[in-house]
Amino acid sequence: MTKKAAKHKAEHNETVKHEETVVTKEAVGQSEELAIKIKELEEALNASNRQAEKLKDELMRKAADFENFRRQKERETQMAGSRALEKTIKELLPVIDDVNRIVDHAPEILEKTEEARPYVDGIELLQKNLFKWLSDKDVSKIEAVGKKLDVNFHEAITQVDNPGAEPDTIIEEFLAGYVLGDRVLRHAKVIVAK
To answer: Angle at which helices 117-136 and 3-104 pack, to 10 degrees?
Structure first.
């Protein structure tokens, strides 16, 4: 190889080394820029994920709050309906008492005049319909006569001597009591044996 060719080869190698150095520096610079951009994107992604989790938690809380609110309103509506029904039944009890008194005295009325039969039959039908309506509303009469006094259901208005009955046994019902489900609408007013 001639001197000139060797010099040319050396210059070429020098140029190639210089270009490789420049390319390497550029590549290093680009990879550093790329690493910085990747890091920025990862941070942005993490921030977005945290924001999404925060919003998801907030949404879950709002959904739970709404469900609790809905249940509370259902309970309030049901209780308002129960209170309205209870009030209506309590207001109707004196009418039921009067109908029961008429039916209880019907035999005496019919002894005096048979012409009262249609009226007595009408009152008995009314009584039957009232008791069916009460039954449909889950209202039942409190059993009293012959039972032991239970202050949860009975109110003793007086005590009398009755040798044929055990003490605290109800011997007479003065006024019928009623329950709505398991709630007492009116205690039975009773006479109790001493």
So the answer is: 160
Q: Residue 141: what are its φ and ψ, rounded to 5°?
A: -80, 140
* Cα(106)–Cα(113) distance, integer angstroms: 11
Q: How far apart are CA 39 and CA 116, in angstroms?
A: 102
Q: Domain 139-194: give its CATH superfamily.
A: Head domain of nucleotide exchange factor GrpE (2.30.22.10)
Q: At 96, is the pLDDT very low, low, confident or very high (cuts 50, 70, 90)?
A: very high
Q: Does this model's pTM top 0.90? A: no
- Burial environment of residue 143 by CB neighbours within 10 A (0 to 12, 13 to 18, 19 or more): middle
Q: Where are the domains of the chain?
A: 1-83, 139-194
Could you tell me the strand order of the sheet in which 183-186 lies?
A: 139-141, 178-180, 183-186
